[in-house]
Amino acid sequence: MEKDTSLNSATAATENQDIVDKNPFLRSGSITFVPRTTWLRWPILFLFVNCIMIVSALSLCLAPASSDLARGYDVSILLVNMCGIIFTATFIPMTFVSMQMYKTMGTHTVLRIASVLMLVGGWGRMYALEGQFWPILVGQVIISLSQPIYYNVMTQISNKWFPDSERSLVTSICGLSIPGGNLVAFLLSGLIFAGIEEMTSAEVK
Predict the structure, then answer these.
(1) Percent of the chain whose predicted confidence (pLDDT) is above 70
(2) pTM of the model
């Protein structure tokens, strides 16, 4: 009887741990979750922060040169600005979708999906030829699907990989990477398009 009781307790503990791993939003006082505090947590944080910065930069990288893009592709400025508005439009519905994905697939799988979406969308924008703006717009839509996936898992990364003493710092770093990516987008886009304008002016002269 004691052996069967111990076996049932071990089985229940294993099932509870599996539920926690698959459901980052589950919080139960009867389940104690021990974070994986290994040295790998810092490389993981570095890669995750880079992904957040990249997706944040991609959401606003076209804004500083919207008028130039509108003239170059012969489209309206509104259509160019839609490349940024798309991220706001998809964020709310994709938040609920990402929550369900984390519950059913787990953190690792969902983050891989987000990375693939971001890469495919970024590559797709490169095929925008002269007079064809639609690849840029389609690429932005694909990238926007990955943004809520990254943003909604910040606390899960800190809870899963870092001890209590480091979680506030890690969560703050993840949060600051969003405006950091926006800043990079504005600076790089401004510098790149300013250089193109200077080269064009020199060729005309």
Answers:
(1) 74
(2) 0.73
